[in-house]
Amino acid sequence: MSVLDKLKEITVVVADTGDISSIKVHEPQDATTNPSLLLAAAQMPEYAHLVADALTYGDIDICDPAQSMRPCLEKLAVNFAKEILKVIPGRVSVEVDATLSFDTTETLKTARQIIAMFEGDDIDRNRILIKIAATWEGIKAAEQLETEGIHCNLTLLFSFAQAVACAEARVQLISPFVGRIMDWHKAKRGVEHIPAESDPGVISVTDIYNYYKKFGYQTQVMGASFRNTGEIKALAGCDFLTISPHLLLELEADDSDLPRKLDPTQSSALDIKQLFLSESDFRWLHNEDAMATEKLAEGIRKFSADLDSLGKLLRDKHCGKKV
Fold this sequence. Notes:
alpha/beta; TIM Barrel; eight-stranded parallel barrel
């Protein structure tokens, strides 16, 4: 058995890609998308029909630069997700526009619109996770959406404060970003490598996992943003792990042992204090974590920039401009 096969026995493996052909090869349970992944996939010829359909969505003239591209971009994300759902048995995550990360009302409106598009094609909302940045405003939106049966994946999660607030909000799933945490610490320390056993990203997810299991939170933990297979192996046993295609290939070619690292039966014995955070508590604790503060802001900016690039790509294609 490969390491990937062994991992699938103790962890739900999720494909972190918008490339449907890659998903078919690796046969994950679930899949995730984001603006960066969609930007790459939308430029592949095999998905031109999904792009063309999105360009005709909504009663707008997208060649008018004053018109927002958001309806077309939401439709494109749904189109890719619908194709992905044809080849996986589980769920797909679809991201809310990152520019809405500090607007609870607009996040709620957009999430409901996305779900309505799926349900208009008779796709069960339980197969969709609405992906929202784990700001205070995003967490509050997710808390409300969960009461409506709209399940959420809280992304760009870097701090323990974010994880605690998400658990208290009873969100379905969180995506702590392992690799981006390590990137920050490598830059701060001026080193090129951090071993998996002392990787700050791995330690962060381990702490969150143990906290959730210790206190019986039902929110699922999905490690994300991996830089190497060592990080993945160090989190074997986590509820979910979302993995890019090139790392899935490495795991598939690896036939070494895979000991389980995270186990809920071991969490109950740990000496951990339970936290209950008000908005001010949350903002203060998150602010005290320089890495988390910087990486959350950077992540929102990057997703927003990729969404802008995707919108420009679609507009230029439709309006006959050279791209």
